[in-house]
Design brief:
This protein is mainly α and 162 residues long. It has one domain. 40% of the residues lie in helices and 6% in strands. Strands 1-2 form a two-stranded antiparallel ribbon. Helix 4 crosses helix 5. The protein is globular. The N and C termini lie far apart (36 Å). It comes from Methylomagnum ishizawai. Keywords: Signal. This is HNH endonuclease.
Length: 162
């Protein structure tokens, strides 16, 4: 039975956990071997006009080509790819693998724990890693295993700020 896209979005927005975290059996995350603790200043923390993430982002055509397959693999009833962001579980800004499907999942856009919120966490953790406040492996593991808990740890309760 298919749920209408609008109804599915309403369910995602109101149901805690619906699509908020990836299934670690499908998307366990993977890292880019080019990024290590030893080369942070030359890789993800390099200060240039052309960031590491921009230079390593796979083309939209690649992400679009795997979107429908991943949406089906996740069992989402709403199969409209526009309702998801093909997200890197371990973000490129923290040394996530850019093209390994084990690091890419269809993250629901309309939910309390949206892709936008995860993006904010990614930037926060990137800044902390580059300042030496959090180790690279720690940041990668915390965002990989439960990015929502990492958000609460590093940023706080989202209901108390926008």
């Amino acid at each position: 039975m298919k749920i209408a896209p609008i109804l599915a979005l309403a369910l995602f927005a109101s149901t805690a956990g619906a699509g908020d975290l990836p299934d670690l059996n499908i998307t366990p995350g993977s890292t880019d071997p080019e990024v290590t603790e030893a080369n942070l200043k030359e890789s993800i923390c390099k200060v240039t006009h052309f960031t590491w993430t921009e230079g390593h982002m796979p083309p939209a055509s690649f992400l679009n080509s795997i979107a429908q397959q991943e949406i089906k693999q996740y069992g989402y009833t709403d199969e409209n790819a526009k309702h998801y962001q093909m997200d890197h579980l371990i973000p490129l800004s923290l040394g996530g693998n850019p093209t390994d499907p084990k690091n890419i999942w269809p993250q629901v856009l309309v939910t309390k724990w949206s892709a936008r919120r995860k993006d904010f966490l990614e930037q926060t953790l990137h800044d902390k890693v580059c300042k030496g406040e959090v180790g690279l492996k720690v940041a990668q593991e915390e965002i990989r295993t439960n990015w929502i808990e990492a958000y609460k740890k590093y940023i706080g309760d989202p209901d108390k700020h926008s």
